[in-house]
Amino acid sequence: MKRKVLVFLALLVCITLVLMPEFVQARTIYSNETGTHDGYDYEFWKDSGGSGSMTLTSGGTFSCQWSGINNILFRKGRKFDQTQTHQQIGNITIDFGVGYYPNGNSYLCVYGWTVDPLVEYYIVESWGNWRPPGAQSKGTITIDGDTYDIYETTRVNQPSIIGTATFQQYWSVRRNKRTEGTISVSEHFRKWESMGMRMGKMYEVALTIEGYQSSGRAEVYRNNLIIGPSGPQQPGPGGPGAPGSRSAFTNIEAEQYNQVNSSTIQIIGTANGGSGLGYIENGDYVTYSNIDFGSGANRFTALVASDVPSTNIEIRLNGPYGTLLGTLQVDPTGGWNNYTNQSTTINNVSGVHDLVLRFTGPVNIDSFVFGAGGGNGGQPGQSQLSATVEETVQWGGGATLVVTITNNGTTPVDGWTASWNFAGNTRITECWGAEYIQSGSSVVARNANYNGRIEPGGSVYFVINISYSGSYIMPTITVQ
Ligand SMILES: [Ca+2]
After folding, report:
1. How high is the mean pLDDT of the chain?
2. How far is the CA of 366 from the centre of ligand 1 (A)?
């Protein structure tokens, strides 16, 4: 009888615990400590002198105060295992709100680190009496409704997550302070990478209050870190895991592979704000499953960047030593962030196959596409596509141009490439409906995901904004 009552009581306690809403105990810490609290990773870090305290409240929220310190950081966010790039982790945003009362030098920021390369980064939303980092801006970007100045600085023999080291710091610093809103964290990462500021594998992303030789306090009343599907990197229809096949004749993003065999390859940002594969080494290979070559392909074109004399991309079927269709010898492009289209003929291939790209050395690859006819004794040089360009708006030093591409042939076209040379210093500032690369005056624009197919007699268009000084000359556009 007694035993039954005990069992019943024990059951009741269990059920009550399960049914009770989760209650998170607030906790205050006064010295260096890391850990997890209500689903968020936190860290309290200070060097010598002064005092500070951090009270951990629910989710990402916390409050903190500091006085007479040298350097102190309070942060709550996510730590990662240093094996994934931000693209692999997904699209990171932080919805935040802070009562921010610094007295002296302080930052309210998103803060974190990557490894390989070791990078300490800041997205600064507000600050105390000094706007960091006191360096020459590399440029500006516009995100979340304001302009941010971009900086890159080098820290020599300074404290880091791996001990004393020399490393780069990346900074986005908002022009106008704010203490609440949404921070498109991954958008900053992508823009930095497009400016040549390489991110490594993620160690941390955290909303952070930092004090430097100052006092102050802050109430972080909202801090929701959201990791969603990748933005532009999200595999589209026909991407990894999607059923069915992908057409060989529309752009295949290099980073939308099904399998990668390499210990170094990473998804990197590319010059046009997109993504690609980098850190490729000799012997690495990447597999794209179920590529549909239709009734036949005999040309391979890849958008690549290279700063070494010669790397070959072997185009193979089924495996790293499967049927060799051809080899693209990649010419140097003048830098790891200068992407150009390079092309080679291949043995004719038709039907659906697993495609393997095998590399003999380093190259950065953004995307690739196959073609039929032309170049290899096919239809002699005659494209069934034509392009016209029209100016729709003009303002001081800029204009909007609409490029229309028409299929004059009798068969549908899947995928197109337009190219032209601008005169003078004309530059594309924005583009809709195509992916483009401008290198000096030379531009190559390729169809977007949705407008690659042109039916016989049909047409598609894309739009560019350009800037120039003086006047510009309407370009002549060739398309194939
Ligand atoms: Ca890409």
Report:
1. 87
2. 4
The pLDDT tens digits for 72-85 are 999 999 999 999 99
User: What is the C-alpha separation between 306 and 279, in angstroms, rounded?
Assistant: 11
Single out the residue of 186, 178, 42 nearest to residue 98, CA to CA: 178
CB 34 within 8 A of CB 55: no
Closest among 286, 336, 337 to 313, alpha carbons compared: 286
Q: Is the pLDDT of residue 150 over 50?
A: yes
Q: How far is the CA of 253 from the centre of ligand 1 (A)?
A: 4
What does the pLDDT look like over 371-391, one tens digit per residue? Answer: 986 543 333 345 688 888 887
> 7 C-alpha vs ligand 1 centroid, how far in Å?
61
- Asked about 391 being catalytic, the answer comes back as no
Segment 57-66, tens digit of pLDDT: 999 999 999 9
pLDDT tens for residues 181-230? Answer: 999 999 999 999 888 888 999 999 999 999 999 999 999 999 999 887 75
| Residue 220: Cβ-neighbour burial (10 angstroms; 0-12, 13-18, 19+) | buried
* 477 in Cβ contact with 404 (< 8 Å): no
Cα(363)–Cα(36) distance, integer angstroms: 40
Question: Is-contact 243 200, C-beta < 8 A?
Answer: no
Residue 368 is predicted with a pLDDT of 95
H or E element at residue 201:
strand 201-228
For 282-288, what is the mean pLDDT? 93
Ligand 1 centre distance from Cα of residue 340 (Å):
13
Cα(171) to ligand 1 centroid in Å equals 25
Q: Is 210 designated active site?
A: yes
Nearest residue to 461 (alpha-carbon basis) of 412, 400, 389, 409: 389
**H or E segment to which residue 168 belongs:** strand 165-174
Q: Which residue has the higher pLDDT, 268 or 220?
A: 220
Active-site residue (options: 210, 219, 255, 314) = 210
Q: Could you say which of 120, 187, 253, 255 is catalytic?
A: 120
What are the Cα distances from residue 364, in Å, to 84, 196, 359? Answer: 18, 13, 11
